[in-house]
Amino acid sequence: MLNRTKLHQKMNTSDAVVKQQDFCYDTVLRDTWKKIAEDTDFYLHTQEAEALFSVPSWQGDLSNYSLVKKYKDQYSVLGIDGSQVYPDRHQLYVQQALINIGGISIEYGSEDPVSVFSEPELFSLYRLNEYKEQVVVTTEWINLEREAREFEVAVEKALAMKKKGCKQLVILFDGTLLFYHLISVNEKDRQHFFDRYCKALQILTDHAIPFASYLSAPQSKDLINLVKLGLCQFKRANCRPCREAYDTVPCEIVDNLSDRQLMSAVLPCLHRSIFFRPASLHSLQYPESLQPYFSYYHGAQEVGRIEMPAWVIQDPIKSDLVYQVVVDQIEKGYGYPVVLAEAHEQAVVKQADKEYFYQVCARQASDQNLAIQYSEKSIKKRQMPY
Fold it and tell me: Looking at residue 193, which CATH number applies to its domain?
């Protein structure tokens, strides 16, 4: 149990509370961004730099900001999210995982505009590998499977909506279309899940159904890395020998900042940035049409990151539709896309549901005359007199 009295005492007497910095980062960010935006050779410098960090590529003027207006006509939008419950390590011999995909479809202007859904799926703790051997399902594998199911369920729902005649359909995902997390996965699982992700997204592409992902409070540093190059004291950045030769370097002043802080400083409210292509994902070979791009939007409440595939941004009508739908959803949700907020509510497995799931697993095992064993810690917690 948390001692709240002592907590408040420590908060008031320690440096745990983040205090406002005397140094004004906004000025540095604005001035440096303005400098690199006006430098016609800056893009070439980014390609020649031998930096210890990756930088995105882009076309056009870095300071080309576009006012985004919400979509005025009727449209349809599908929001998808997912959650998972890992096997209970204290409930031995009853080992099942739960993946719950939730979502909502909204058809503005129709007689029955809103439809919500929640689709639970069970997975055994063991699965067959490529050698038909039983291997333990890890939490990492469950997370990857959940993401794959989010895309696959989105395809099922979107095709059904399109068959029904939904006009101007847009799909929104919570999270990112950049699968960096797959890079650290073993090669066979990486290829398996990457292929599934791309297969689902390619079906949406083949049916010309635009999709995007939205990230609230993004912590990415893609554009901050451009600022770091702009702060470099040398015409051609070469980080390793520079760090070895100097105790302090100009670029380190923005090391702890994110793109969100940069865009808050330079991007006018209700405007979006140009699209950027992130640095290569090395071992992940995206199909050309699915190459991910990102952009930032400065809403009334926050700066959000919006990611779209190449085929969408290459079609101005599609990309404008997606952006306008996202902005309208943000306004309807008072700062966060309402369709994603509702999708999260359908997908999330709350503590009471989690306990119910474990109870159902135990009951099923009991019905099958399987021995159920609890860890000693779990038993002691159940027996506590208070």
Answer: 3.30.2170
